[in-house]
Amino acid sequence: IVVIGVILGLLGCAKGFSLNDPSPRIVGGSNSSPGQFPHVVSLRTLQRSHFCGGNLVTVSWVLTSAHCTLGRANDGVIVIAGSVLLSEAGEESEERQSQRLANHPYFNANTFLHDISLVHTVSAFAITWNIRPIAMANYTIPAGAKGVLTAWGHTSYPGGELNDNQQWLFVNTISNAECISRVPEIDRPFVHDTTICTARDTIGQGLCLGGLGGGVLIGNAIVGISSWHLGCAIGYPDNHVLVSAHIPWIHATI
């Protein structure tokens, strides 16, 4: 999976790509089926332009990346749930406007520390077969665990066309020590105790230019919010904010 979207800064091998491209991109993933990941939502501008993904954790709160919501007005986000397509929401999808955006108070846009935020909708979503909150992992994630990464995007890189259908991809967690050893020295300070890295054995599958608020799932719980990467699926690990490390803040906020 390669994901490209709006981020706040370039990291390492990501240099040379545009930060103003609003479209998320995934390479090497598979199409999600309706209802397969009922917690995944599309975050859009008031003009209905998709800019990030999100994860429904209650019927009225969405967990995403702080770099997705930074600088946006509290009522400036439209949340669309229940659709795997960007172009056609469908009759069984639902739409809500935000009433509050809560970035983590210690989010650092320079180091991506605590790159996590919450979006509160004006009213609750109805729980259906294709709209359902997901549990949040409150436990330690070991290295070597197999997870699933979800997002929208391109089917191949470079040169792939933007896929209208949400994508998913298997990923494997690695220890922070291994993650640090596999990234350039200049980028090692971006790996924090409150983050978790994932990796693929195959070149051409992974994040690209930002996390887009997508999530890493293990079992029936969300364990990470995609935050940053180096280059575009060229073999470096991808980095995600640990949900378990932020459970106290999440509970205090919602």
From TrEMBL:
Per UniProt, what is one GO molecular function of this protein?
A: serine-type endopeptidase activity
Chain ranges of the Peptidase S1 domain = 26-254
Name the source's superkingdom. Eukaryota
Q: Which PROSITE patterns match?
A: TRYPSIN_DOM (PS50240)
Q: Which SMART domains match?
A: Tryp_SPc
A Pfam family that this protein carries is Trypsin
Transmembrane segments in this chain: where?
A: none
**Keyword field:** Disulfide bond, Hydrolase, Protease, Serine protease, Signal
Alphabetical GO biological process terms: proteolysis
List the signal peptide residues: 1-16
The family classification in the record reads:
Belongs to the peptidase S1 family. CLIP subfamily.
Q: What is this protein called?
A: Putative trypsin-like serine protease
Source organism of the structure: Nyssomyia neivai
